[in-house]
Design a protein that fits this description.
The chain is mainly α. The protein has one domain (31-292). It is 71% helix and 0% strand. The radius of gyration is 32 Å and the shape is elongated.
């Protein structure tokens, strides 16, 4: 009887082991085993671009920098006629900053939902109870399988919860987020136009200064100064062009992510997340490019040689 009882117990344990193993193997994964951390990393890069106010600050300070280029005693005038008062720019600056902050906060929330800061019970899949068994504890195959399966199922549940929340957030906000990115694109064009207008005025000021009797009447030094200023402004305009291109990319990527989550297609989602790793590099490059926007100092330091200078003899 004892042998039969022991045999029956082992058969029940074996059946339990098979049931738990089948749950572990056959249960459809809620996230298709994707790594949502890729969305979190991408969101951080996108938020850094959208929340970067360097273009806004550069736009806001444009006239101040332009006027600062005229030194006391200069005969040539500088400035833009018909331009709204600086107080209007001050008020608009505060409102435009809200657009930057709102988009940055949105992608920050998206990144937090996708982050892997939640517990990782699925790590128990790789755990072993051999050392516990070695101490004499009788651990059945079913109990060991339970340790692995519960950890795996809980991990999938947490991943599925995160993916569901991300999908819900993007479905509810994608239309408005798209509109805000378009609005930021319009602001980006405004920023660039302002800096380009400043460039035109700065060069005209230098050309006036190169006239006979002007502060830069030495043609050689005048031409060098114009070239230097043109290059300086071109660097800023190039960074603003890179910024504009990154906004286009973020808008496209946001929709691609939303569609991949909505379709609940693990393979497509994996491909999307893999592609994000590459486009994230482009966004980081755009953030770095914004460092080219100069600090609040005069854009031009007119060269005033003490003695007349002439071009070197070829």
């Amino acid at each position: 009887m004892l042998v039969l009882s022991t045999l029956g117990l082992r058969m029940r344990q074996a059946r339990s082991f098979l049931c738990l193993a089948s749950i572990l193997v056959l249960l459809p994964p809620l996230t298709g085993c994707v790594n949502l951390q890729a969305i979190s990393d991408y969101s951080a890069s996108a938020g850094a671009v959208l929340g970067n106010k360097a273009p806004l600050v550069r736009w806001h300070e444009s006239e101040t920098r332009l006027l600062a280029q005229r030194l006391e005693g200069d005969q040539c005038s500088i400035g833009r006629s018909g331009r709204p008062a600086q107080a209007d720019y001050d008020a608009a600056f505060t409102q435009a900053a809200v657009v930057h902050d709102t988009l940055s906060q949105y992608f920050g929330a998206l990144g937090e939902l996708a982050s892997n800061h939640s517990p990782k019970p699925a790590q128990t899949l790789d755990s072993s109870l051999d050392n516990v068994k070695h101490l004499g504890v009788n651990i059945s195959p079913a109990e060991e399988a339970a340790l692995h399966s519960v950890g795996a199922l809980l991990g999938r549940a947490l991943e599925g919860y995160r993916q569901e929340k991300i999908r819900d957030l993007m479905e509810q906000t994608h239309a408005d987020v798209d509109r805000l990115i378009v609005l930021l694109q319009k602001l980006g064009a405004l920023y660039r136009d302002e800096v380009n207008g400043e460039r035109i005025q700065a060069v005209q000021f230098l050309r006036c200064s190169m006239a006979p009797g002007g502060e830069l009447s030495d043609k050689f030094w005048g031409r060098r100064e114009i070239l230097r200023v043109q290059r300086s402004y071109q660097s800023e305009l190039s960074s603003l062009d890179t910024y504009a291109a990154s906004l286009v990319k973020i808008r496209q990527d946001h929709e691609v992510i939303r569609q991949a989550l909505a379709m609940d297609d693990p393979r497509r989602l994996k491909d999307t997340l893999h592609a994000l790793a590459e486009t994230r590099k482009e966004l980081d490059a755009a953030s770095s490019a914004l460092h080219a926007l100069r600090p609040a100092t005069p854009a031009i330091t007119p060269l005033t040689p003490q003695t007349p200078q002439t071009p070197p003899t070829p």
